[in-house]
C-alpha cells in the first residue's frame, strides 16, 4: 500500500535546515541556485575560485540562512579534501552536492591547445567525479543524499569551437547515470540539470563575438511571448525540485531546461 495521497503538501519542496554545497555559487548560475535553495530553508556552502563572494554572502544572509566559503582550485586534490572538510567543520553534514563550477575555451578543433583541453576537462568533468567521490561516503553514512550535476545543451549535440566543453558535458550525463546506478542502494540519488541558452555575464563574450548566434538560438525556441534566451530565474524552480523530497524517486535523469530548444529539428 502506498502513501496516503492526502498527505501531499507544499512541504515536500521544503529544504529547511538542509546543508547544500554548491561549487562556484558566488556568481552566475550558481548564485541563482544558492538564492533559490536558501529561500527554501537551506544553509549553503560555497567552494569558489574567484575572490569576490560579497554578493552571494549578502543575499543569503539577508534571507536569514547561513553561508560558508572555501577558496581554492577544484582541480587540486588537496583543495577538494579541504573544502569538504571545511563544510563538515561548519555544518556537520552535507545533504546535497551541486557540481556547478565550470569554464570554457573556444578554438577550432585542429588548433585546440592541449593545455586548454586539459583545463576544461579537469574542471568540467574530472573535478565533478572526484568531489562526488569524496562526498559519497559521507552521504552514505548519513543515510542518503543528493548529487546534482550541471549538464548542457551540448550534452546532446556539438557546436563549432567547443570540443573540450562538449566532451566534458557529454561525460557529465554518463557520470550522472553511473553514480545513480552505483549509489542508489545507499539512498543517494544523482541527477543533472541541462540548461539551454541563458543570457549571463559568462557568455556575453560569445554573444558579442557571434551576433548571429542569438538569432540562430532564438529561432529554435518556440515561444508565444517573444522570449528566446533564458533568464536565470527559469533555473531556480527546477533546482529546488531536484534538491527536495519531491524528487526522491528521480534518479539518473537529466532535466533539460532550454525553452524547447532540443525538441526541434536543426
Structure notes:
The protein has 266 residues and is of the alpha/beta class. The chain has one domain: NAD(P)-binding Rossmann-like Domain (Rossmann fold, 3-Layer(aba) Sandwich). It is 42% helix and 14% strand. The chain is built from 8 helices and 7 strands; from the N terminus they run βαβαβαβαβαβαααβ. The chain has helices at 28-39, 54-63, 77-91, 114-142, 163-183, 204-209, 211-219, 233-243; strands at residues 19-22, 43-48, 67-71, 96-99, 145-150, 188-195, 254-257. It has a 7-stranded parallel sheet with strand order 3-2-1-4-5-6-7, sandwiched between helices. α5 (163-183) links the parallel β5 (145-150) and β6. α1 packs across α8 (233-243). It is globular and about 50 Å long. The mean pLDDT is 93.
Secondary structure layout:
Layout: E1 19-22, H1 28-39, E2 43-48, H2 54-63, E3 67-71, H3 77-91, E4 96-99, H4 114-142, E5 145-150, H5 163-183, E6 188-195, H6 204-209, H7 211-219, H8 233-243, E7 254-257
Parallel strand pairs: 1-2, 1-4, 2-3, 4-5, 5-6, 6-7
Helix pairs in contact: 1-2, 1-8, 3-4, 4-5
Q: Unreliable stretches, pLDDT < 50, 5 or more residues?
A: none
Q: What is the total domain count?
A: 1
Distance between the termini: 46 Å
CATH homologous superfamily heading: NAD(P)-binding Rossmann-like Domain
Amino acid at each position: 500500500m502506498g502513501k496516503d495521497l492526502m498527505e501531499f503538501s507544499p512541504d515536500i519542496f521544503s529544504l529547511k535546515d538542509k546543508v547544500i554545497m554548491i561549487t562556484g555559487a558566488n556568481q552566475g548560475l550558481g548564485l541563482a541556485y544558492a538564492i533559490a535553495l536558501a529561500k527554501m530553508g537551506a544553509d549553503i556552502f560555497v567552494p569558489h575560485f574567484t575572490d569576490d563572494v560579497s554578493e552571494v554572502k549578502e543575499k543569503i544572509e539577508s534571507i536569514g540562512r547561513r553561508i560558508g566559503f572555501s577558496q581554492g582550485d577544484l582541480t587540486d586534490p588537496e583543495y577538494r579534501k579541504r573544502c569538504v572538510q571545511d563544510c563538515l567543520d561548519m555544518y556537520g553534514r552535507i545533504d546535497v552536492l551541486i557540481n556547478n563550477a565550470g569554464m570554457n575555451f573556444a578554438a577550432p578543433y585542429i588548433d585546440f591547445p592541449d593545455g586548454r583541453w586539459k583545463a576544461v576537462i579537469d574542471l568540467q568533468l574530472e573535478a565533478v567525479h572526484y568531489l562526488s567521490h569524496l562526498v559519497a561516503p559521507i552521504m552514505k553514512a548519513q543515510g542518503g543524499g543528493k548529487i546534482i550535476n550541471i549538464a548542457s545543451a551540448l550534452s546532446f549535440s556539438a557546436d563549432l569551437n567547443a570540443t573540450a566543453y562538449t566532451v566534458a558535458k557529454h561525460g557529465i550525463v554518463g557520470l550522472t547515470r553511473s553514480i545513480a546506478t552505483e549509489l542508489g542502494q545507499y539512498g543517494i540519488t544523482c541527477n543533472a540539470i541541462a540548461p539551454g541558452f541563458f543570457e549571463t555575464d559568462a557568455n556575453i563574450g560569445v554573444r558579442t563575438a557571434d551576433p548571429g548566434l542569438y538569432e540562430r538560438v532564438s529561432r529554435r525556441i518556440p515561444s508565444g511571448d517573444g522570449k528566446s534566451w533564458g533568464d536565470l530565474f527559469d533555473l531556480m524552480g527546477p533546482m529546488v525540485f531536484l534538491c527536495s523530497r519531491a524528487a526522491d524517486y528521480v534518479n539518473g535523469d537529466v532535466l533539460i531546461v532550454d525553452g524547447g530548444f532540443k525538441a526541434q529539428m536543426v
